[in-house]
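Key idea: predict the complex, not the pieces.
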Amino acid sequence: MRARAYPTWLTFGALALYAVFIVLPGVLGIGYSFTDWSSYSNDLHWVGLDNFSKILSSGSTYLRFILTTVVFTVTTIVFKTAIGLALALLLTRGVRRLSHLYRAIIFLPAVLPILVISLIFRSVLNPATGLLNETLRAIGLGGLAQHWLTDPSIALWSVIAVDTWRGVGYITVILIAGLLAIPVEYYEAAAIDGATGWHAFRNITLPLLVPVLLVTTVLNLLYGLKVFDIVFVLTNGGPGRATDTVYTAVFDDFSKGRYGIATALSTLLFLVMIVLGYLTIRVMGRDDEG
Amino acid sequence: MLKRTVRSALLGTALGVVVVGTTSLIATAQSPASGVTLTVMASQEWIKPAEQDLGKKFEEQTGIHVDYQILPADQYFNVLKTKLNAGEATDIFGGQTGKSDLKLQYDVANNAVDLTGEEWTTRIDPAALDQSSLDGKVYGAEIWDIIGSNYFVTVYNKDIFQQLGISVPKTFDEFAAACTTIKAAGITPIYEPISDGWHQVLWFPFAGPSFEQAEPGLADKLNANTATFAGDANMTTAMTQINQLYQSGCFGDNALSDAYADTDKAMASGKFAMTVSPLSRPVSIEHDFPNVKASSFGFFPIPIFDNQLQPVHPAGPAKFIYSKSPHVDQAKQYLDFLMQPDNLQYLLDNTPDFSTLPFTGVKSKWDDAQTAFLDTYPAKTLVYQDVVNYLNPQWIDLGKDMVSMFTGSMTPADVMASIDQRRTDMAKAANDPAWP
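Result:
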């Protein structure tokens, strides 16, 4: 074990702040999830697992919101990672000229406020007057024009596409850093041994990039499960409730004063994130020890 | 190392103080002379440009700046209730009046300032005052045209009807047949702006007087919890008819994305034959598109469930003063200013959507078509959302259910059951004795 640079008591201040502002509200929230707390009444009653059974009972609309959240999360992880990796490879191994400019352009959506992006895309995806459908019609592909945000079978995919566009630059930058950390000598040795580009990618790049991919996956996972703003502005959960996610449902319940069920929903998501976070740290920790 | 850390921390703190201090200075520099800025939060369409003009005049006279926060209609109630629940509402907030809204949506007894005894309460229409009051106390200032802007009717393009030989429909079947004829002529029968989340709901409760005519005492039974929406054949028929209009393409291809704010433009274009809108719509169209005359539009009641009755609707957007506002006196001063007779007349004269205001002493501006409609369909019964408890507070939810119905994930019967479920939840939470 390495000697500590600082005495333990130096952490007490940070721990106290963390406990008061992060842990305590979390624990209180979990406590409230077992009550019928609402804005309609000043009384608070213990209802046991009623809120959770309401959420998890078959036929509950909440199950649909959970499913939508899972679909959103898994899909955006796959898209952002695949596209991010392709762009990162292109900008480190392919394009040499102006690669920094391209990186900046790809990263740009990540620094724009989500609200602005969502409002722009609401306009772009308008079926009658939006830029996308107008362009499709102008080039003779009017048959591909869709009701991007109002057709229940397409709306979620439109939200996923916009979110991927927004988030892929961030993932690309992290992956570029990971790729640049891989020593060039490995590729030179492999080339001397006659390895093709695909072999080099599969046997050198991918294995050495796993820790970075794990980080991006965790980031995408936590973001995906907590997604709110982009859905809220793009579709407000619509059409109907086709794109409602766990957090838009939490917001909806909270705004209607149904605090008990809202905290139960947050608690469920909190537990899922704790479990996934713990598993990820264990996996990463094992790699470090190795 | 430790010294360096401490030094960094001190530097960071100092920088923080400088930033905070500078921000405060900027904030102070931007404040008006009186140092008070009143924030008014409202849904789209609730704050008219003429009111903002009056706000500037108010600032000139008092030094109190009025800052308007206008939110999209489909998000407004969520944001407002979140702010109220978090104890962070604006000085003045907009809200729909009506007893159950006042009690359940806004909890006015705790969140709003009692305005009983203010001078303007003696000049406002008693029906509007009643909808803004709860347990004998006045909470809302309903500066709103409760006839011209509240009587939602079917506005139709007379020229299109005449060219296609269509007469004003008296039943739903005649209405549906008219839609088919119009659609066949390449014109979209109805402009239905669903994207705002609330407009499509209007079709249902405005047929309320006909539900009541078919089954006298239904509203009382619903309030006494001895009747439900689910299983009621008449109301289910009405919801089925609304769905039929959507499914048959009467609302056009783009209804789910169409916006209420574009109604004037849509109707002026001649590409739409009808829309459900307030009586003031044609005047508003002529104001925005002078080439299109108000007289080229006519009115008839919303014909769902063969409805031929026009309901009274005294509830509407009102202003409430937030009880925790540090500027209650200034907010009262602002409301008092807005409701001075001269200012009410200015608001009325400069707002195309308004034909009258519910105050004594203001001069209304009805045109011939509006007068003819009001004479033909004298409004007597209250609109259903004003008489059936727990209906208006679930307006946006009902709107979402209706969109689910349009897109196939709910049936009209599901929508009815969903209304009952939400009514039960609200009634139980409010300890309503009818829901033991």
